[in-house]
Amino acid sequence: MFETGVRQFRLALGMAQGRRLDARNVARLIDDVLDTLAEFGEPGGDVAELIDGPMADPQARAELATASLRRTARRLAAQSPFYARRFTAADAAPDKLEITGLRTIPVTVKAELTDRPGDFRCADVPACLATRTTGTTGRPAEVWLSRYELDLWPALGALASVLRDELRPGDVLQVNLSSRATAALHLASTGCRLAGAGFRPLGIVPPDEALDSLAEGGTTLLQTCSSYLAELVTAARRRGMSAGDFRLRRLVVGGEVLSPSVAQAGIRTFGVAHIDDPYSMTEIAPVTGRACRQGHQHYDLGLGYTELIDLHTGQPAAPGSLGTLVVTPYFPYRDCMPVFRYDTRDVARCLPDAPLRCELAAIPATSQILGKADHLLLLPGGEVITPRQLIEAIEALPAEPWPARYRATVCGGGIRLTLPASAIAGYGEAETVRHFAAAGLDVDLDIVGDDQAASLRRTRSDLHETTFASQHALVGA
Amino acid sequence: MPVPIQPIPMWEQSLTELGVIIFGMIVVCGGALTYFRRVRVERPPVGTFNGRDVVILLVIIGVLPFVYGWLPIPLVTCLLALAFGSALYIGYRPLLGRAGAWLGIGLLLGFNIWSSNHIMGTLPGWQVWFTEQGILVVLVAIAVCNLYLQGGMKLRHVAWLSLGLAGYDVFFAGYYPLTGRLIANYITHPLTPLLGMRFGYVDFAIGLGDLFVYSLFFVASYKAYGVRAAAVAAGVLALAGGFATAFIPFLFNFTNANLDVLVPAQSLFGPAAFVAYLWMKRHYGRERTMAEYLASQDRVAAAPQLEQAPTPEPASI
């Protein structure tokens, strides 16, 4: 108890002063949490404040953000060649940065990261592990992480997870993400080790293999992407598997739009209470977002600064309007290859200017992520159609064409929507058009053969990994 | 003309001391158990008592007397007021609320400090002072006992703490008589950590630390293994903490330079408590966690409702 108090004080002091944190101290705090749970069955009072910080006061939030942004900018100006140039060009003094003046510093875009990755590397930290984005939306970006980041991120993540009862000793976490997602896999494996849980990285293997592992391997937690979840649900139904065949207590998806149709099917098939749909992105790690029960996306306040920028003006998005998420991870949480005002191009809607009533009301939020900015459809009347609208409508079709494969373009003032034939099987084009109209989408259908489905829209589940048990052919044998 | 001191026989002193000790034990152990069963102390989000905390406690207990002996008395009073006030606030805020707790603490400490400076010198004055002092000590012992036990302290920790304190008592009462000197120097000053009474010209008292350890052992036994273990603990308390402590002077007649009898109570109780713990562990098995204890209380509370539940109708086929 006395030691725990000292550890918490050390962690809080490090966070307040912006010094590099001791990951071993955080790891020992995880042990303390596990001991606490073993003795009491639950954490003590004020646990939310311990995880999320005392952030209900907007003034305190602003002060923390200003101090953290200045600290981050100071380090970048000294250590990052890219940002040293950028701050100089913008005539921005790191010590005098204000939240309101941030817009004088241009956002960083993905092309800059992929074109000149070396310029983003801080000179004072040796790189340890490279991780790449999946590249489903273009050329993959490579992000290097330091040993410090590799130690700290999973420790902080595991600490929050055990406090929220998302991860328990004895849990087995199965991860069906691309095996090239090295950072995500490292975070999950180390987090499990720290929490005393088992870790089973499978990759994007054939769904039947993943289902066998889920059913027979004692898996209690599943982490995957929405499109692969859709494939798992489809395969489970084909095999006649249902909730009784699994021991899952938590299911987490991310990286793609999760439609209510797939979410409900996943809940029924795997027998979980709900599906967690957090927001994360390789380039802005370790900043993440959490979805509340009212469907808002709430962003980490302690680890980074999140802005919602109007797509056209670059000004803060007005209530009700669409914007792109621009994120600045703070030092000392981002160390090796930091970004400052990184434009994720992930679009969300600014919530109405009224107090939130959800369980995470103290943490600022936007709407759910609605898709990538480059995939928005702008209709002549000014109406904007988001990828989420299209995916939700397609995945709600009676044929359950999961994951949604489509191509949408603006043509003749309306939406030309290309779908594979199986998506409307047994439904007919006229009914399908009415289905989309009911969802507020006036579409002109273009039906193509199923053999073209995969080329219509790439999903993360397309990054198939073969196994000796499942591969169809050996090339060059 | 000074009144000559008429010492009462040692056996009479021992019996009176036994009465004071047993009274203190009953009030503190009973109060601590009642509190433990009915009131939940707020605990921090993370942290539970462990073996290293026992070591830290022993180090603090070992160092503190030197600090108290070195500091000027007004400063010692301030430190004691801080310690007593904190313990009372944490312990009684769940019962009295924030304002009520502070009001009570202010009255208790305020009256204690006032009485220590104004009503001593007569026998009734001493007795009023001891009574008020005793109330304060009982309340603090109950609060701190629950703070530790509800913070996750197990019977195992209590047993080791008792054993450590036994060594402490032997050393500081026998080889390096710091405890006696501290009491002799500090008694009559505010917030003296003693529960006692003056009968005639003799003070009979038991230390706050002793009462604290007794209540820890008693309530921890109850929490770990239930009522039967608490009964065993009560027996150990009565024998090793009560009779042995009270009658050792009668048997060995050892006294210190101030003619006051100082008995290192923990040196007798510590080994007995440790052996009792080992016996309970062997006899009853693993200790209950706090969660298991609370769950057992919930089951007890729910039991009458279960008995009243109607017998289900046979299912139709």
Helix content of chain A: 25-40%
How many H/I helices of chain A? 14
Count of beta strands of chain B: 2
Which series of helices and strands of chain B comes N to C?
HHHHHHEEHHHH
Number of strands of chain A: 19
- Look at the structure and give the mean pLDDT of chain B: 80
Unreliable parts of chain A: 473-477
Mean pLDDT of chain A: 90
Number of domains of chain B: 1
| Global shape of chain B | globular
Estimated radius of gyration of chain A: 23 Å
The radius of gyration computed from the alpha-carbon positions of chain B, rounded to a whole number of angstroms, is: 22 Å
Using a beta-carbon cutoff below 8 angstroms, give the protein chain pair with the largest interface and the number of residues from each chain.
A-B, 24 and 19 residues
Count helical runs of chain B: 10
Residue fraction in strands of chain A = 15-25%
Examine the coordinates and then state which fold CATH places here, giving the name of the CATH topology of the largest domain in chain A.
Rossmann fold
Distance between the termini of chain A: 62 Å
Indicate the structural class of chain B.
mainly alpha
**Basic shape of chain A:** globular
Largest sheet of chain A: 5 strands, parallel
Question: Low-confidence runs of chain B (pLDDT<50, min 5 residues)?
Answer: 255-259, 306-317
Q: Care to describe what's here?
A:
The complex is a heterodimer of chains A (477) and B (317). Chain A is α/β, with parallel strands linked by helices. Chain A folds into 3 domains: 58-148 and 280-374, ANL, N-terminal domain (Rossmann fold, 3-Layer(aba) Sandwich), CATH 3.40.50; 165-276, Response regulator (Rossmann fold), CATH 3.40.50.2300; 378-462, GMP Synthetase, Chain A, domain 3 (2-Layer Sandwich). Chain A contains 14 helices and 19 strands. Chain A has helices spanning 2-17, 23-40, 47-52, 58-79, 81-90, 110-115, 147-163, 182-195, 207-216, 226-238, 260-270, 387-395, 429-438, 453-456; strands at 127-132, 142-146, 172-176, 198-201, 221-224, 250-253, 275-276, 289-291, 297-299, 304-310, 322-329, 342-349, 365-366, 371-372, 377-378, 384-385, 407-411, 414-420, 443-448. The longest helix of chain A is centred in the N-terminal third of the chain and has 22 residues, at 58-79. Chain A is globular. The model of chain A is unreliable at 473-477 (pLDDT under 50). The model of chain B is unreliable at 255-259 and 306-317 (pLDDT under 50). With 317 residues, chain B is mostly helical. Chain B has one domain (10-296). A two-stranded antiparallel sheet of chain B has the order 1-2. Chain B starts with 9 loop residues before the first helix and ends in a 9-residue tail after the last helix. Chain B has helices at 10-38, 51-70, 73-118, 123-149, 155-175, 178-186, 208-225, 227-252, 265-284, 290-308, and strands spanning 194-199, 202-207. The interface between A and B is medium-sized, with 24 and 19 residues.
